[in-house]
Amino acid sequence: xxxxxxxxxxxxxxxxxxxxxxxxxxxxxxxxxxxxxxxxxxxxxxxxxxxxxxxxxxxxxxxxxxxxxxxxxxxxxxxxxxxxxxxxxxxxxxxxxxxxxx
Length: 102
Known about the structure:
The chain is mostly helical. 80% of the residues lie in helices and 0% in strands. It is built from three helices and no strands.
């Protein structure tokens, strides 16, 4: 990979980070739960992409690609599980005290 390609990828990564911070900081607290559910769906798609990229890397690339693919799968899975736990906890805050118990 040429140095120009690496610089372009780093540039896109940094711009995406700044954009993400700006977007999240402007979201009102009432919208966090629906947005988190949508983000969890996107993370599920990320897991599928990481699995397919890792499968291709197993047959064509070296050990570094395999390690990066495995790390991508693990981190995306942690993100999905954590997101659902936080969403469940946030939704639990809106329930009345007697709703869950009969």
